[in-house]
Write a structure and sequence with these properties.
It contains 1 helix and 17 strands. The protein has 2 domains: 121 residues, Ferric Hydroxamate Uptake Protein, Chain A, domain 1, CATH 2.170.130.30; 81 residues, Immunoglobulins (Immunoglobulin-like). The strands form 5 sheets. The protein has a 5-stranded mixed beta sheet. The protein has a 4-stranded antiparallel beta sheet with strand order 14-13-16-17, with no helix packed on it. It is mainly β.
Length: 216
Amino acid sequence: MQNRPQNVFVRVEGSTDTIFNGQVQSQGHKVMTKSGEAHNCDGTNCGRNPTAGNTPTASLDTASKGKFTFSGEWSDRFGDILINEIGGEAGDKTRWWHIFVNGQYLQVGGGQYQTKPNDHILWAYDKYPSLPLKLDILSDARVDHETLFSVRNWETQDPVDSATVAWVVDGVTGKVTTDKYGLAIVIFKKGGKSTVRAEKAECIRSDTLTVNVAGK
């Protein structure tokens, strides 16, 4: 397989804010460490893959250009760059940077795992174990009508209760809480584009959904 550029989605969730969320075109390449050394982050580290390809760390490096800073140091033990700071948030004894791909926690380094086109890569600053939330809309959105959302553990797909689903439409905000089935009913009072996301203590906030709310 050739090391060709591929489109992937990268989201970086800090402790209180989303640092980056967008699609990038990336391929495996050398990434600079904090000490100024360049190391391969193309999946061939430690013989993990026979040929070079894109990785979560290469994607992070691509996404960072002109957007945010990050740093890490090379580990001979792990054969990878250990990312310890993104957007000014550095890891400590209780929290550090975790990597998920399509909701699954990576069991190998971010420079060793090779991604596929359209993969969703999540870098999240949290303690271990981390629970990433997945928010989905299950019905059409219309003003003064019930719109159903679900919140699940992105990794296990289990429903998450007591999560807050919050939204904004043209400056009008609202929030509701999921039930034991991970479901929440939202009644929008204004039409237009709404941003909706889910949060819960001790969890990684969900991606933000953009919902087009139709008029009455």
